[in-house]
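Open question from group meeting: does this chain pack into something compact, or does most of it stay loose? Before anyone orders reagents, we agreed to write out a predicted structure and look at it together. Recording both the input and the output here so the notebook holds the full record.
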Amino acid sequence: MDWTGYGDSTRTGDNKYVLASFRADANLGWVVELRSFLNLPELKYRDYSPRKQHVASNARVQANLNKGLAEAELTIMDVESYKTIAYFDLIDQGAEPGGDFDLGTLHRMAADDMLRDSPFSLRSEEMYHGLPADGSYRPLTRQSFSDALQELPKFDPQAIRQRAGGKLRDVQVLAARAHSMLSPSEFQELRFLVAGPMHGGGLSQNLERIKRLAHVFDVEHAKSVPLLNELVGQIAQVSGIPRGVAAHLASAAPVREIPSTSSDHIQAADFAAGWAGDLLVATNNDFRALARQVRWVTLNGVSVPA
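Structure tokens returned:
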């Protein structure tokens, strides 16, 4: 089975980044039908938006569109919430705005915290806090933590941020893409796997886990691609896959960018991202309303209940 995911994104007026993904086996007949109905060479949400009432007048096309959107997986990154947390953390420490810190400080802190919440934090002990003490995993002492992950590079959010482009917007894209490659349940499973090898399974099962990480994104942020491919290799290593095989999996570039013109999947993702962004604006950011209409929604890496 082809587990590849295909993603595209949009930004909302209140600085949220919405990334929509569709799996390779998604039914995309609605994309072809809607593109033909609107007489478009490429399906883009921006071209559909002013004609949505025309589409709604055709019950069959609208019903197929709704059914297709239900297969979307949505990853939302809200940078303003990270900036707010950074601001109050500094205030609590006695820092004064304008004197002790500025907007650039908040952006750097928000970016680094965003990475700490993402799969890039594999080497951070904070990633494993809060796992249930039910005897099914080994608590990670400094020594056992080192044994489990000693071959991975040290988690350095500042270095990752610089490689991604250095700006908060760069990290926003990178973190969203990393979250989209692992559903909330898969991310939790990975944490258990690192903390307790008994959760791992055999080589075949672990290879299937890595195949699920493969993603193709619209051309938007080339600097994120090598970082995401390195992440695939790191996840492969902690999944128990031999180091040489893990390196080969990463070098095969399971994460890449392609133009949306060549992919119905990415056109579907562009449409779903734009549709989700508009719905959030119309509902004053009712994430649960959005979650009721698609496969799943995460906000800053946390699953939103339907």
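Observations to bring back to the group:
The first strand starts at residue 5 and ends at 11.
The beta strands are 5-11, 16-23, 73-78, 215-218, 255-258, 296-299, 302-303.
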